[in-house]
Amino acid sequence: MTDPIELNRRNWDERAPLHAASSDYEVDKFIADPAHLSEVVRFDLPRLGDIRGLRTVHLQCHIGTDTLSLARLGAEVSGLDFSSQSLAQARALAERCGAGIDYVESDVYAADQVLAPATFDLVYTGIGALIWLPHIEPWARTVASLLKPGGRLFLREGHPMLLAVNEDHQEQLVIEYPYFEREASTVWDSGQTYVQTDRLLEQTVTHEWNHGLGEIITALLQHGLQITALEEHDSIPWEALPGQMSKDATGEWSLDKDRWRLPLSYTLQAVKRG
């Protein structure tokens, strides 16, 4: 098997139950507390605003903790992911929490073929998603196709500048990986995932692609979206550079030394022109 998307899918299928069982995703807290929200969604609450009643789709939703959080804020949410095992965990969580969320299995590029186009008020993409897409232009096309005129994209993502840094150098910031989108992927082979677990993965090979901030913005503009907000952050929800970061009370990680040196994530919003 050499198809990179299929290799990634198999890896995420194997990760999904490990993530759902991990305290990092706080599944037990979601079940115990009907008001609990994911750390990722809590971070962006001031930017999300009032989303009550908005028809929303969460692209690349994984096990659905952010999706459930959007539903708890009053949105009418659908979740989409290419991993059947991720969606199985998402559906189980929604059922245990009494949330009416429609989950759909699909490649994100085909989202407008399995969901009604031009019917969504809000397209949401959470952090850690875009690196799994080989090309950003068809993603932007899909976002534009799903949104109603006047509908909004809300994206928080790891900053492409951070993703170009090699985390193995713990004494300094070293740029070794692509910043701009390239046809060739960056290939990883690891039995680890990013949550605490005693189990090693069997599906170890994954492929990632970085996308420059300008490339993302240009693709959205080309497909009729107007950028309405762009905020770069000096924090991110995981320990992206081990040995150089500390975690704060909100669950965000930041550089220990000179936080101003590197953007770690960003929040982008855009509206479909109509």
Automatic annotation (TrEMBL):
GO terms for biological process: methylation. The keyword Disulfide bond does not apply. GO terms for molecular function: methyltransferase activity. It comes from the Bacteria. Keywords: Methyltransferase, Transferase. InterPro entries: Methyltransf_12, SAM-dependent_MTases_sf. CDD domains: AdoMet_MTases. Residues 58-153 form the Methyltransferase type domain. This is Class I SAM-dependent methyltransferase. It comes from Pseudomonas tructae.
